[in-house]
């Protein structure tokens, strides 16, 4: 019963601020004069341009996932098994892209491969008219997902298992294939699914790099809602994306459960050693080069472009209101973003911690496990739909929030909650249930058990979760672009607006603002890295 | 009665782990529950503690029904098998936990911690981290933590299970002495008969969720209730026999039994010390299959021609070599006719 009470908060939150707005916008699109027009689904699907978007969304997600695995798996191995100077710093560096706002990622790649970008200047090569810009940006963005999810488990696999196989007569390669690979497979699958999910619903990156030629479902939903005003097509596209995401999440939930099956794990610190022999040094060098080219270079170019005008001209321009795109100086977006993100973090931590506490028990029933998967949905449901849904659904009493500043943090918290839950759940589940029993027998009520036993153990994870929620809220774009008021833009919204206008000054200011956003995220991440332990979570 | 269980039943997926168990523990009594793993003895403790709901029956403490009373209000102590000390608290923090939950003031907590650390022989260890303790020290801290809130009933789950043998033998004597001095009522479970016999006023043997026998250590040792209890206590010379008068007809031939022995079809136990080795041409003819040095004596496994093997306890010098042929006679005083 107590567990159900704990879940009441998160359930109510998701019902009011997620399910209701999404349902409202679907209804707005498909219901005409009280009659449901499900026939619209068939009509929309029959359009060749919709089918083209669907096809592109799927294949670019598949291609991005495959490419990310190809590039990042050697990195996962190097981070798991090798010990080398600067490893901690490098681990933080590769994680920076993951917490970067998609808008910044898009801008950084635009600065690298776009018109007037680094490659354009050097060799006249432009990739922003090809799909490669999108794919590379997706790899950049998701490299850390694979390195962290797969590498984290790999580092904890007992190397003696492989040694046991060698003693039983297996060759080195065979031992890897027969012992290590099966143990890793669920983690690889889970990472691949996460990457697929993120790229399938990609918005900011494609919006900036895709141009007119390439459009994902999410971008198309945005275009239909805000430019074409064809709500019924947008509603159908939302439903299609929803169905696809539910299917992917179902597979994900299944692999996560398999991953929790009993693997013999050891302390990650004991399994890494210095590389030996030319082959291992070459592998390490290769991974370092990949990180330099793929992760460091785009960020460096972004910073370099932002300094393009003499005397920090672009940065100084940020402090001036030009009356065009903004009613206020763009620099004010920093303050807005920080305030919104802090509020969103507070909401996400409370809701996420309640949900994680409710989900902790391994004997959780089917209903609770279903809720587990449900919590992941906001990661995959069209953020654009959520944002527009907020405007449509939360505009009448008792929930007239349209004019309230809380609207933006609420939407941002929706994407923060899954991160909080995913970070805290493994730690909470690792707490030995008998410690709780020991406390109960000594006279601690259930609430005190949580405070005295669980909380001290998850305090660190809670901080890490809060950091992720903060970074994710800071970078949220799809929903915020709808609901942030013109005089209160967030950083990503301001960047997108600047990029949408012609001229070097706007371009330079976008670079400058992106650099600031990147620095804020990087600082948040450095703090996280100091806090996190190897056991705290999946991200 | 301080603790009484009536028809306590716990089922895991249809299988009864506790099967209508009735048990009473009087104040100041030390009771050991002895049984092989899977016999339901840990579940018994968890049911009393309120950590495992009963499917049927009831638990009473001081005569009051405990159904619906959550674990933290039962005021019983439980020492867990692997101690379950709180890793993020130091020794004093662990010991003070129970008094703190019951609202003791800081000064009271401090005094209680000091008192208990002296009691368990770790004075001044309050600031130490529990991770830095040895196995024996952890055991002492766990004991102090369980005793700190002055539980009316102290329960121990395999209290010495993870310690090495010599430490175990020393600690069991200390525990017995300590509980006697404090007048603590104790319910301990163990799979180690030596531990149970050394600790308890009364031993309860469990099998498959039921109580197979209950009695003083001497009673249980001298008169095991049935073949299961006898075998669990380490006796292997157990056979079906027909008792009539002063003799039992067994596969080993005619075995003399004590005067007051029950008559008819019975199970008969011959202690190893009651198997006397004589010249090969006298008594039951056996081959010596193996001999195992046991410190104070030699355990000899004897194989008669058409009967189950026998174990004999021989003095060091008198023990025959493996491969020899010997004769065997039985000593009525060391033969038990089981109920």
UniProtKB/TrEMBL annotation, chain B:
Record key words, sorted: ATP-binding, Nucleotide-binding, Transport
Domain ABC transporter: 3-233
EC number(s) per entry: 7.6.2.9
Source organism, top-level taxon: Bacteria
InterPro entries assigned to the protein according to its UniProt record, in alphabetical order: AAA+_ATPase, ABC_SmlMolc_Importer, ABC_transporter-like_ATP-bd, ABC_transporter-like_CS, Mo/tungstate-bd_C_term_dom, P-loop_NTPase, Transp-assoc_OB_typ2
Broad enzyme group: translocase
Gene Ontology molecular function: ABC-type quaternary ammonium compound transporting activity; ATP binding; ATP hydrolysis activity
Key word Nucleotide-binding present: yes
Cellular component GO terms, alphabetical: ATP-binding cassette (ABC) transporter complex
Family annotation (PANTHER family): SPERMIDINE/PUTRESCINE IMPORT ATP-BINDING PROTEIN POTA (PTHR42781), SPERMIDINE_PUTRESCINE IMPORT ATP-BINDING PROTEIN POTA (PTHR42781:SF4)
Name of the protein described by the UniProt record: ABC-type quaternary amine transporter
Source organism: Streptomyces parvulus
Lineage: Bacteria, Bacillati, Actinomycetota, Actinomycetes, Kitasatosporales
């Amino acid at each position: 019963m107590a567990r159900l009470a704990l879940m009441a908060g998160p359930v109510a939150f998701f019902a009011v601020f997620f399910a209701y707005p999404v349902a409202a916008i679907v209804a707005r699109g498909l219901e005409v004069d009280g009659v449901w027009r499900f026939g619209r689904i068939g009509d929309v699907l029959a359009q060749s341009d919709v089918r083209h978007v669907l096809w592109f969304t799927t294949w670019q997600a598949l291609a991005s996932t495959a490419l990310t695995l190809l590039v990042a798996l050697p990195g996962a191995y190097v981070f798991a098994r090798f010990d080398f100077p600067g490893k901690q710093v490098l681990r933080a560096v590769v994680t920076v892209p993951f917490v970067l706002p998609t808008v910044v990622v898009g801008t950084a790649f635009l600065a690298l491969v776009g018109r007037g970008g680094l490659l354009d200047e050097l060799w006249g090569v432009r990739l922003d008219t090809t799909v490669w810009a999108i794919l590379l940006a997706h790899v950049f963005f998701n490299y850390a997902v694979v390195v962290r999810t797969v590498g984290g488990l790999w580092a904890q696999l007992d190397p003696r298992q492989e040694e046991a196989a060698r003693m039983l007569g297996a060759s080195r390669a065979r031992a890897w294939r027969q012992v290590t690979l099966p143990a890793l497979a669920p983690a690889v699958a889970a990472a691949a699914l996460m990457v697929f999910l993120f790229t399938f619903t990609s918005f900011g990156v494609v919006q900036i790099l895709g141009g007119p030629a390439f459009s994902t479902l999410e971008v198309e939903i945005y275009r239909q809602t805000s430019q074409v005003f064809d709500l019924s097509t947008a509603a159908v596209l939302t439903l299609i994306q929803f169905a696809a995401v539910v299917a992917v999440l179902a597979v994900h939930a299944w692999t996560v459960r398999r991953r929790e099956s009993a693997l013999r794990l050891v302390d990650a610190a004991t399994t890494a050693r210095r590389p030996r022999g030319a082959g291992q040094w070459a592998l390490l060098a290769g991974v370092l080069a990949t990180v330099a080219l793929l992760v460091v270079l785009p960020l460096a170019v972004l910073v370099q472009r932002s300094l393009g005008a003499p005397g920090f001209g672009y940065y100084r321009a940020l402090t001036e209101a030009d009356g065009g795109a903004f009613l206020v100086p763009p620099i004010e977006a920093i303050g807005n973003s920080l305030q919104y993100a802090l509020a969103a973090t507070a909401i996400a931590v409370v809701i996420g911690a309640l949900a994680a506490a409710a989900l902790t028990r391994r004997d959780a029933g089917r209903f609770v496990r279903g809720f587990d998967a449900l919590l992941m949905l906001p990661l995959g449901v069209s953020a654009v739909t959520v944002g527009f849904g907020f405007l449509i659904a939360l505009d009448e009493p008792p929930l007239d929030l349209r004019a309230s500043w809380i609207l933006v943090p609420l939407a941002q918290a929706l994407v923060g909650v899954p991160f909080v839950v995913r970070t805290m759940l493994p730690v909470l589940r690792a707490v030995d249930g008998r410690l709780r029993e020991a406390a109960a027998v000594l006279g601690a009520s259930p609430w005190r058990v949580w405070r005295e036993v669980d909380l001290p153990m998850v305090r660190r994870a809670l901080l890490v979760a809060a950091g992720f929620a903060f970074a994710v809220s800071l970078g949220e774009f799809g929903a915020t672009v709808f609901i942030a008021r013109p005089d209160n833009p967030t950083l990503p919204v301001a960047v997108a607006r600047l990029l949408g206008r012609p001229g070097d000054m706007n371009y330079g200011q976008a670079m400058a603002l992106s650099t600031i956003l990147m620095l804020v995220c990087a600082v948040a991440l450095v703090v996280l890295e100091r806090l996190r332990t190897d056991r705290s979570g999946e991200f | 009665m301080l603790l009484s269980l009536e028809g306590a039943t716990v089922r895991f997926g249809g299988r009864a782990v506790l099967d209508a168990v009735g048990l009473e523990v009087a104040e100041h009594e030390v009771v050991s529950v002895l049984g092989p793993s899977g016999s339901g003895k840990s579940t018994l403790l968890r049911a009393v503690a309120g950590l495992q709901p009963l499917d049927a029956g009831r638990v009473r403490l001081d005569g009051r029904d405990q159904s619906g009373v959550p674990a933290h209000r039962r005021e019983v102590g439980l020492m867990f098998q692997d101690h379950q000390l709180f890793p993020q608290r130091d020794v004093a923090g662990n010991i003070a936990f129970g008094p703190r939950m019951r609202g003791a003031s800081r000064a009271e907590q401090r005094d209680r911690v000091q008192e208990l650390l002296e009691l368990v022989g770790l004075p001044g260890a309050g600031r130490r981290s529990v991770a830095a303790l040895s196995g024996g020290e952890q055991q002492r801290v766990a004991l102090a933590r369980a005793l700190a809130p002055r539980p009316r009933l102290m329960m121990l789950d395999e209290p010495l299970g993870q310690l090495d043998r010599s430490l175990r033998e020393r600690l069991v004597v200390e525990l017995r002495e300590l509980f006697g001095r404090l007048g603590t009522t104790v319910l301990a479970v163990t799979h180690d008969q030596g531990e149970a016999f050394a600790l308890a006023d009364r031993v309860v043997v469990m099998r498959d969720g039921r109580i197979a026998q209950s009695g003083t250590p001497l009673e249980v040792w001298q008169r095991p209730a049935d073949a299961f209890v006898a075998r669990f206590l380490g006796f292997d010379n157990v056979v079906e026999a027909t008792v009539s008068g002063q003799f039992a007809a067994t596969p080993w031939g005619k075995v003399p039994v004590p005067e007051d022995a029950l008559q008819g079809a019975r199970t008969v136990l011959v202690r190893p010390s009651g198997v006397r080795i004589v010249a090969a041409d006298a008594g039951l003819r056996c081959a010596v299959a193996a001999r195992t040095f046991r410190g104070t004596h030699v355990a000899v496994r004897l194989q008669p021609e058409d009967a189950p093997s026998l174990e004999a306890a021989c003095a060091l010098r008198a023990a025959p070599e493996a491969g020899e042929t010997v004769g065997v006679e039985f000593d009525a005083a060391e033969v038990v006719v089981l109920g």
